[in-house]
Amino acid sequence: MDDAMTALPLVFDAPRRGTPPRHLADLTREEARAAVAELGQPAFRADQLARHFYRGVTDPAQMTDLPAAARETLTEALLPGLLTVVRHQTADNGRTRKTLWRLHDGALVESVLMRYPDRATVCISSQAGCGMACPFCATGQSGLTRNLSAAEIIGQAVAAAAAMANGELDGGPGRLSNVVFMGMGEPLANYARVRKTLDALLTPAPHGLGLSQRSVTVSTVGLVPAIRRLTEEGRNVTLAVSLHAPDDELRNTLVPINTRWKVGEVIEAADAYAKKTGRRYSIEYALIRDVNDQPQRADLLGKLLAGRLAHVNLIPLNPTPGSPWDASPLPAQREFVARLRAAGVATTVRDTRGQDIDGACGQLAAADSVSVPSVAVPAPSVEPTVELGAEEDQ
Ligand code: SAH
Question: Which of 74, 213, 222, 354 could disulfide-pair with 96, CB 3.0 to 4.6 Å?
Answer without folding.
Answer: 354
